[in-house]
Design goal:
By secondary structure, the protein is of the alpha/beta class. It folds into 2 domains: 13-91 and 342-440, Aspartate Aminotransferase, domain 1 (Alpha-Beta Complex), CATH 3.90.1150.10; 98-338, Type I PLP-dependent aspartate aminotransferase-like (Major domain) (Aspartate Aminotransferase, domain 2), CATH 3.40.640. The protein is 41% helix and 12% strand. The chain has helices at 10-33, 50-53, 64-71, 93-108, 110-114, 119-132, 146-156, 173-182, 202-212, 235-243, 264-267, 324-340, 342-360, 390-401, 426-440, and strands at residues 81-82, 140-143, 164-166, 189-191, 217-223, 248-252, 271-275, 287-291, 366-368, 380-385, 403-404, 406-408, 415-419. The chain has a 7-stranded mixed sheet, with helices on both faces. Strands 9-10-13-12 form a 4-stranded antiparallel sheet, with helices on one face. It is globular and about 65 Å long.
């Protein structure tokens, strides 16, 4: 039995909603968990099924049929509409298949491939990452997650009591906590300017950063796209302003990299940390860390082992034993992105945002809490159902409609954060909007 969605009429909704919600929940939960019994939801799926892996992507085609074929590259639990890519992404089938093959190769000859057998392949992945972001391979380290990257930055600096680091109020905890532990606890001051939820211009945001600067400011640490409401911050403009004052700029790019095209040279920041398991669709536990060549001298490795005297950026990823199949899987994920085209993905991200907003804007009880300007937001939008608590909205979406989103209560957002990754189609958005209308009443 497939989950069916019924849009209630104004007159019938009140009398039937309780009964139907119970049926929706029963149907969806039954489909989601039948036969799982503690095993993986996808345990019955064979990732090496050639019928699923050989879908033809016509790169010159931008029709919905094309994007439906992209969606088919991902395998989700039955009846699940996954609008939560901002929390954690999914690997396409080709990446799953390649990563599993790497794992089998490693297990067949562990000592060979863990320590040296894949050196050339690792460097090939580094080059693919560098090309994706338009920088040198000598400016890319392959780490574990954004949190590690932000820890690496915050711990490296020899700041003195009274020195200042600027972080706006919307920074992710994993960016704030490292600065708190490694710097604030020794007397460095963390300056926390407040930015509006719905700024109108890029210049408005830059002015807030500039007003927070004093002669004691050493570093600006900022998100590229904030996780609360998807606001995109003007990294390039802030970097240009900060560098004129001798201030370094570190960026948490977890929610931006892969969502839209990024040229790190053009952004001009000093450091950029990325979790590749979100919008890059790579295996979990692999990340990208960019350090501009002229700024690498500030950095100190979090972990040291044999080879610690290496002066290249590889000293920042000197873990000895690590999960190399996931690292090589990152290369496959970039191949997947390149096969579609990063510019095409970027355009699609904005197109889905526009399609969603056009349908929501005319509905009074659905209140968008993400800036409209394309310079200030992309494929993450946060939406409030007026008069309803976000936790109950998120629960209704997943329990009755199989729609996974992320509730955001901070900063009085009271909204569900909705992610429009490339496996989302316009049909999926139609389904989401109908569900939101029904929940809003």
């Amino acid at each position: 039995m497939q989950l069916q969605y019924v849009l209630f009429t104004k007159h019938s909704f009140k009398d039937t909603t309780t009964t139907m919600k119970k049926l929706y929940r029963r149907s969806f939960v039954k489909q989601l968990f039948t036969g799982v019994s503690g095993a993986l939801l996808l345990s019955s799926y064979k990732s090496n099924d050639p019928q699923n892996l050989n879908i033809n992507l016509k790169v010159d085609d931008n029709s919905e049929a094309f994007w439906e074929s992209v969606k088919a590259q991902f395998k989700f639990a039955p009846n699940l509409r996954y609008f939560n890519n901002g929390s954690l992404g999914s690997c396409p089938l080709s990446v799953q298949n390649d990563t599993n093959a790497y794992r089998a190769t490693l297990d067949a000859f562990p000592s060979k491939y863990m320590w040296g057998g894949w050196n050339d392949e690792k460097e090939a992945v580094r080059q693919k990452v560098a090309d994706l972001f338009s920088v040198s391979n000598e400016e890319i380290a392959l780490t574990h997650n954004t949190t590690e990257g932000m820890n690496l930055i915050a711990k490296s600096f020899d700041l003195a009591p009274g020195d200042e680091v600027i972080l706006i109020n919307h920074e992710h905890k994993s960016s704030v906590i490292p600065w708190t532990v490694f710097q604030a606890e020794k007397g460095v001051i963390l300056v926390r300017p407040v930015i509006p939820i719905l700024p109108k211009t890029v210049e408005e945001i830059v002015a807030i950063y500039e007003a927070a600067i004093t002669p004691k400011t050493k570093v600006i640490s900022m998100c590229h796209s904030i996780n609360t409401n998807g606001m995109v911050l003007p990294v390039k403009e802030v970097s240009e302003m900060a560098h004129k004052k001798g201030i370094l700029v570190a960026v948490d790019g977890a929610q931006a990299a892969g969502m839209f095209d990024i040229n790190l040279k053009e952004l001009k920041c000093d450091f950029y940390a990325v979790s590749a398991h979100k919008w890059l669709f790579a295996p979990k536990g692999i990340a990208v860390f960019y350090a501009k060549k002229s700024s690498q001298n500030y950095l100190k490795p979090l972990i040291v082992a044999k080879g610690y005297k290496d002066q290249s950026i590889r000293r920042l990823e000197n873990y000895n034993t690590r999960n190399l199949p996931e690292l090589l899987g990152l290369g496959s994920a970039i191949d997947f992105i390149n096969n579609i085209g990063k510019e095409k993905i970027s355009n699609r991200s904005y197109a889905l945002k526009h399609y969603f907003r056009e349908q929501i804007n005319a509905i009074p009880k659905l209140n968008l809490k993400t800036p409209e300007d394309d310079r200030l937001s992309c494929a993450i939008q946060t939406l409030e159902v007026v008069g309803k608590n976000v936790v109950s909205v998120q629960k209704e979406l997943i329990d009755y409609y199989g729609i996974d989103t992320r509730p955001m209560s901070a900063y009085e957002l009271n909204g569900v954060r909705i992610s429009f990754a490339i496996f989302i189609t316009k049909k999926d958005i139609d389904y989401l909007v109908d569900a939101l209308k029904t929940i809003a009443g």
